[in-house]
Amino acid sequence: MNAHTPPAAAPVVAIVGATGAVGAALIHSLTQRNFPVAQLRLLASARSAGRSMAFRGQPVAIEELTEDSFAGVDIAFFSAGATISRRFAPIAVAAGAQVIDNSSAFRMQDDVPLIVPEANGAALDAAPRIIANPNCIAAILTTALAPLHQRWSITRLSMSTYQAASGGGAEMMEELRASTRAHLDGEEFEPKVLPHSYAFNVFSHNSDIDPDTGYNGEELKVIAETRRILAQPQLPISVTCIRVPILRAHGISLSIRFDEHVNTDSIRHALRGAPGVRLVDDRTANHFPMPSEASGEQDVLVGRIRDDLGDPSGRSVTMFIVGDQLLKGAAQNAVQIAEYLRARAAA
Amino acid sequence: MNAHTPPAAAPVVAIVGATGAVGAALIHSLTQRNFPVAQLRLLASARSAGRSMAFRGQPVAIEELTEDSFAGVDIAFFSAGATISRRFAPIAVAAGAQVIDNSSAFRMQDDVPLIVPEANGAALDAAPRIIANPNCIAAILTTALAPLHQRWSITRLSMSTYQAASGGGAEMMEELRASTRAHLDGEEFEPKVLPHSYAFNVFSHNSDIDPDTGYNGEELKVIAETRRILAQPQLPISVTCIRVPILRAHGISLSIRFDEHVNTDSIRHALRGAPGVRLVDDRTANHFPMPSEASGEQDVLVGRIRDDLGDPSGRSVTMFIVGDQLLKGAAQNAVQIAEYLRARAAA
After folding, report:
1. Does the annotation list B20 as a binding residue?
2. Tell me, which fold does domain A139-325 have in CATH?
3. Which helix (H) or strand (E) segment is B249 a member of?
4. Contact B214 A320 (CB under 8 A)
5. Angle B169-184/B21-32 helices, nearest 10 degrees?
6. How far apart are CA A338 and CA A336, in angstroms?
7. Is the per-residue pLDDT at B1 higher than 90?
8. What residues does NADP(+) bind to (chains A, B) (predicted)?
9. What is the pLDDT of residues A261-316, one digit of tens each?
10. Chain A partners of B290 at a C-beta cutoff of 8 Å?
11. What kind of architecture, by CATH, is found in domain B12-135+330-346?
12. With the CA atoms of B285, B288, B290 and B293 taken in that order, what torsion angle do they form, in degrees rounded to the nearest 10?
């Protein structure tokens, strides 16, 4: 919108799955980004109804999610898993809401845009009823790739991830804390969320594995969604998703192949100041992106930019990317989508 | 040696750097592998002299390392850093000892064999005075690669590592424990070993960075040593070394390119039962190599064997490898070298 357009009325916003880790992050991001909210409705399962959560200094009562929850709602953020989204998103749309869905339910559906504003926000020129928010790794990755993808032709991605407990929800974060404390105290710990200990441990991502290819669900999402966001449906992508014992920021060790030699200084120049990106690439101080510095941050941190010595063609560059899984990897990207929709509506 | 050859007399063994994390692991590995020892000499700095450490149920007094320490020593294990090795290994050799050196001091020296018994033990046919024990990642990696390298032609390696605190010594392990406890208790922690917090954090390997290439010392070692062990001096290797908050087992997310299509079943078949390797590759149970299961284990765990979907040529296969950094990554490999030397001498 330009300076002479009056702002649209502040919307009524609903959060489905308000009590989860992403739900709490949505409340945080709405506040942090000063998103206009006329009224906030917090929806969750019956067992949370009656409790309340704070928003902008006021308590908001949690309501049970029902088919009647969406009357008067303008924007509904869904973060309660694919089953809830498949059932209730069409109901919210029928009630007149725009849905921004953090689950995987609609991400590969042709008529549902899958959006990372920095990478493909321009694709949001219609007024879609449902917009899908990508998988956390795909969102963090494509934010960092966007300024490169806009300038050079990417012909291959190869990555291994360092994923935090938050991707498994508040329960997995608590299991990491509790099992670590037990380990330090020399006490037994009976895992509840995982089939093994999380304390001081690293393991292959705990999503279901495709028996034919051996790829897990997370990896298949990263491949399919990254291709869709970059509009390169055949892009070769190598990915191994690993969980590490950290709380809420995901790391990605990445090699990018271009169709030509690209100087690492040009890469740094393209990344510096790009929307949503912060360059952290200090060789002298050995200071590169770390989860401890990315947690709670809106920007994706990018560094360790080097020629990939494993590609004799000289066309590959490596980098290490870290982003807050709950913010850019989930809630913040959803709020950014809402900002985009609002700006489009006002334009 | 065959059944009719009398065993050689048990050697006098010295450990230089006995009080470090690898020193303790050397004592453990000598016992675990039942290596014959006539007498054990524990050598360390003056400040540890007078203390004692247990070996096979008996206390062994720690002596100060001096130029006179090696009289009568048959095998000297060095694990006190490159500076100590450069100064004292030639003295040990002059005194008649064979040196097995865990530092980087001699690893790239042409007349010093760099040995991982499973991969290139056959190179030990002379009776070298100094044998170099590789970098931990190179040792764990080449153990897993050996049965593949023997059968197929490897044309490229691409990896990201998940390295434990133990690679930084006992002090770094203690810093991980102490900083994690402080984090859980909500207390401030002043890092001593690292320039930042280790608790629930991931960071680029803390070795010095080559300002020209941006590769750190650990990565350059992995490249140079892996090429040397595999006797492929030009092998393209992509590597990013990352520390994760785990205590003593290193993980490697690896893609191997061959010069032909290699079926993943053939890879599994080659790895199953290979020396020093344990296949952990259960897709149904989502059970793959984990540091929690590799710690304290002599074998390197290998799994997540899949076609690399990022290589359209169909010639690349991914895997995830985990090995105990203090055992196969350091002390155990050194003891295995000593076993090899002993077997050669008796043959």
Report:
1. yes
2. Dihydrodipicolinate Reductase; domain 2 (3.30.360)
3. strand B249-258
4. no
5. 110
6. 5
7. no
8. 19-22, 47-48, 166-167, 325
9. 999 999 999 999 999 999 999 999 999 999 999 999 999 999 999 999 999 999 99
10. 196, 201-203
11. 3-Layer(aba) Sandwich (3.40)
12. 70
Mean pLDDT of B233-260: 98
Name the strand (E) or helix (H) holding B324. Answer: strand B316-324
Q: Which carries the bigger pLDDT value, residue A345 or residue B186? A: B186
Q: Nearest residue on chain B to A307, judged by CA atoms?
A: B213
CA B56, B69, B26: angle at the middle one, nearest 5? 35
> CB-based contacts of A190: which residues, under 8 Å, 6+ apart?
none
- Tell whether A58 lies on the interface with B, counting CB pairs under 8 A: no
Residue A132 near residue A115, CB atoms below 8 Å = yes
Asked if B310 and A158 touch (Cβ cutoff 8 Å), the reply is yes
Put simply, the answer to whether B290 touches A202 (Cβ < 8 Å) is yes
CATH class for the region spanning A12-134+330-346: alpha beta
Q: Where in chain B is the domain with CATH 3.40.50.720?
A: 12-135+330-346
Chain B, 262 to 321: residues with Cβ < 8 Å from chain A are: 264, 283-288, 290-292, 303-312, 316, 318, 320
Nearest-by-Cβ selection for B290 from A203, A287, A308: A203
Nearest to A311 among B215, B238, B264 (CB): B238
Chain A CB within 8 Å of residue B63 CB = no
Whole-angstrom Cα distance, residue A64 to residue A47? 8
In contact, B73 and B41? CB cutoff 8 Å: yes
pLDDT above 70: residue A174: yes
Residue with tokens 């074998």: B299
Q: Kindly determine whether residue A238 and residue B255, on different chains, have CB atoms separated by under 8 Å.
A: yes
The whole-number pLDDT of residue A1 equals 39
Range(s) within chain A of domains with CATH label 3.40.50.720 = 12-134+330-346
For chain A, the maximum distance between any two Cα atoms, rounded to a whole number of angstroms, is: 65
Extended strands (E) in chain A: 12-16, 39-44, 52-55, 58-64, 75-78, 98-101, 130-132, 154-162, 203-204, 237-240, 242-243, 249-258, 277-279, 300-307, 316-324
Strand B98-101: give its sheet, edge to edge. Answer: B52-55, B58-64, B39-44, B12-16, B75-78, B98-101, B130-132
Contact map slice: A 218-237 vs B, CB within 8 A: 223, 236-237
Mean per-residue pLDDT, A95-110: 97
**Tokens linked to A229:** 């966001």
The mean pLDDT value for A132-145 works out to 98
B172 touches chain A (CB under 8 A): no
pLDDT of residue A7: 59
The whole-chain average pLDDT of chain A stands at 95
Residue B136 is among the residues annotated as catalytic for this protein = yes
Q: Which residue has the tokens 């799994």?
A: B303
Question: How far is B287 from chain A, CA to nearest CA, in Å?
Answer: 8
Q: Closest Cα to residue A339, out of A23, A6, A3, A7?
A: A7
Angle between helices A21-32 and A169-184 (to 10 degrees): 110
**What are the chain B neighbours of A177 within 8 Å (beta carbons)?**
184
CB pairs under 8 A between A and B: 178
Nearest Cα residue in chain A from B156 = A310
Write down the catalytic residue from A149, A205, A241, A250. Answer: A250
A250 is catalytic: yes
What's the pLDDT tens digit per position in A188-235? Answer: 999 999 999 999 999 999 999 999 999 999 999 999 999 999 999 999
Distance of CA A47 to the CA centre of its chain: 27
Residue ranges, CATH 3.30.360.10, chain B? 139-325
Q: Tell which B residues from 238 to 267 touch A, by Cβ distance under 8 Å.
A: 238-240, 242, 244-247, 251, 253, 255, 264
